[in-house]
Amino acid sequence: MEGLEWVKKISEHDGIIDINVRQGETRIPELVNLAQRAGTRIRSVSLREPTLEDVFLQYTGRSIRDEDGGNRALMRERVRSMRRKS
User: Fold this and answer.
1) 1, part of any domain
2) Is 77 inside a domain boundary?
3) Are 10 and 19 in contact (CB under 8 A)?
4) 55-85 pLDDT per residue, tens
5) Which of 10, 62, 58, 76 lies closest to 38 in space, CA to CA?
6) What are phi and psi of 34, to 5 degrees?
């Protein structure tokens, strides 16, 4: 978006628009003004810091919990093996 380089991502689902921006706490007034000029009615605004899960999903494209049971079992076996060697 020209002039809105701080907007990282916009998505809409079930009438809710999710806007990911840099420095969200300082951008809320600007977003409200843009929405009003566009004739968009805002019912509520919330600010949320990204979680570890959000960051992991962004970089890998999958959830941390998407690990299948095989990988978990393999990890448990490695831990057991390391304990036996100690």
Assistant:
1) no
2) yes
3) yes
4) 888 888 887 776 555 566 777 777 787 777 7
5) 10
6) -60, -40
pTM of the model: 0.58
Structure-block tokens of residue 1: 């978006």
Binned at pLDDT 50, 70 and 90, residue 6 comes out as very high
Report residue 40 CA to chain centroid gap: 24
Classify residue 2: in a domain, yes or no.
Answer: no
CB 70 within 8 A of CB 77: no
Residue 50 lies in a domain: yes
Number of separate domains in the chain: 1
Cβ atoms 21, 10 nearer than 8 A:
no
Note down the domain range covering 68: 7-85
